[in-house]
Amino acid sequence: MAVPVPLTSRELALVIGWHPEAFWPDEERLLRRLRQAQQQGGGLMLTRLQVQILFGWGEERVGGHYGRAAVTPEERAILEKLRAVLEQQD
Asked: Which of 3, 31, 65, 86 has its CA 20 to 30 A from that of 53?
């Protein structure tokens, strides 16, 4: 079941930049949805698995050397939104 993920066009662009190339078919479907939502100006609907994949990309992105997180305010906002969506589905 897909749920709304409240990311702005700017946030969608950042997320796509976290992982611009797909390795797995699930990632390809996710990137396609992200790009489509960005072109339409929002309205992103994702499954729990897709939100988890995005959250994983975000964690990889902000993980710094020696496990220290290096997070920009925009990245923090995106991760908080994704975490909230995941918590709603628990």
From this structure: 65
